């Protein structure tokens, strides 16, 4: 599997910050009011003991699959090493969001970024002024 410029950009966002993952959503060509998964990157925590030839970084590509940088592929049934964030990100390619609905749809509709933290998911709090804008 080749590394795309978008995936490299998402990886750099994680490498140069404390982020565990970065995801890019796009408008669906058939229905421009629906957002679909384009690509994502998840940098899972390093296990204390490395098992086999599993790479350090996981790339997400396609519906319900996780592709390792070494081109190995596993289904999301296998998970991502027991990391809850990784499991959530592994499920994201199968999701779609309506423009203006949910965090993803709201960000696309308003054109402003939103920082969502695990402790704010149930209160629907988001923060748009925590860090400077990142422009692609």
What's the rounded overall pLDDT mean? Answer: 70
Quaternary: single chain
Question: Sheet with the most strands?
Answer: 6 strands, antiparallel
| SSE order, one letter for each helix or strand | HEEEEEHEH
Shape: globular
Name the poorly predicted regions: 50-56, 60-80, 126-136
- Computed over alpha carbons, the radius of gyration is 15 Å
N-to-C span = 23 Å
The percent range for strand residues is 15-25%
Features:
single chain, 136 residues, alpha+beta, six-stranded antiparallel sheet, 3 helices, globular
Fold and architecture overview:
The chain has 136 residues and is α+β, with helices and mostly antiparallel strands. It is 21% helix and 21% strand. Strands 1, 2, 3, 4, 5 and 6 form a six-stranded antiparallel beta sheet that branches. The longest helix has 11 residues, at 5-15. It is globular, with a radius of gyration of 15 Å.
Task: Give a quick summary of the entry.
The protein is of the alpha+beta class and about 140 residues long.
What's the structural blueprint in terms of helices and strands?
Layout (H helix, E strand, L loop, with lengths): L4 H11 L5 E7 L6 E9 L15 E3 L4 E4 L4 E3 L8 H8 L4 E3 L3 H9 L26
Antiparallel strand pairs: 1-2, 2-3, 2-6, 3-4, 4-5
